[in-house]
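Researcher: Go.
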Amino acid sequence: MSVALYIDENVHRGITDGLRIRGVDVLTVQEDGRTSFPDPLILDRVLFSQDDDFLAEANHRQDKQINFAGVIYAHKLRVTVGDCVRDLEIIAKTAYLEELSNRIQYLPL
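Model: Structure:
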């Protein structure tokens, strides 16, 4: 029951590094060669983002009942790097993909 997290290109590297140190499976948009891809094309995996555009796209998909893997969102000014790492680790290690599907999870928990 481990969920791999896809990390948006605008997320602080400390979050990605902190998750990897804790054994969380993460892949960044940059590592996947999808930098600057349109937002709708990124939502095929459970995505962690601090970008309001992804939040808007996820809300749009919910309204139109368009499937997406799930978005975890944290506003950059309302949550610390450490809080993001802690909460994302909890989600990645305890959630099921089905629980995140078509859903927006806000941080902090």
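Model: The radius of gyration is 13 Å.
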